[in-house]
Amino acid sequence: MTIEWFGKTCVRLATSEATVVVDPLDSASGLKVPKLSADLVLATNQRISPKTVGGEPFVITGPGEYEVKKVFVYGLAVSNEQADRRTMYLIEAEGLSCAHLGQLGHQLTNGELERLEGVDILFIPVGGHGSLNAEQAASVISAVEPRVVIPMQYRIPGLKENLDTVHAFAKEMGVKESEAVGKFKVTARDVPQDKMQVVMLTP
Description:
CATH architecture: 4-Layer Sandwich
Largest sheet: 7 strands, mixed
Number of helices: 3
Radius of gyration: 15 Å
CATH class: Alpha Beta
Distance between the termini: 17 Å
CATH superfamily: Ribonuclease Z/Hydroxyacylglutathione hydrolase-like
Structural class: mainly beta
Number of domains: 1
Order of helices and strands: EEEEEEEEEEEHEHEHEE
Helix content: 10-25%
Oligomer: single chain
């Protein structure tokens, strides 16, 4: 599986069978909208539009269980008090289990933690201002115990949204921002078993 991050909560997961795009960007973000095509598009809240993604993707915008081209997707309703309906996703493909928390802004409930048990890769917001900040994200990571953590939803050049930078999160987790990579390629065999790996991606 090859993983890329494009800013905010937009990620692309490419397997040998399919391409999945979660939370496509639009021009309102201030960021350059990448030309993406996909077999599957997932939206973690109602305000996100799949229209910027090419191809003829199967679009998922809420809770449920789905299978497309050997990719299994479980949409989990997020328990919150916000007006907009939010969903987090568990994505299983090529022997890997990935959890995308969208713009989560609270600690996970016991029920949510149970659904995420055994997750290999966790995509987690860290920029605060309505979503988890660095300290809160570290607490969620400690509760979930994933093998790989990929931070998202933080301030980068061009973004119009007011978010914290990734600096506080990197410090909290003991990683260096300079070690960020453009793509993360991983197989089920590569995932660390006895320690947790934090992967910083450049958009």
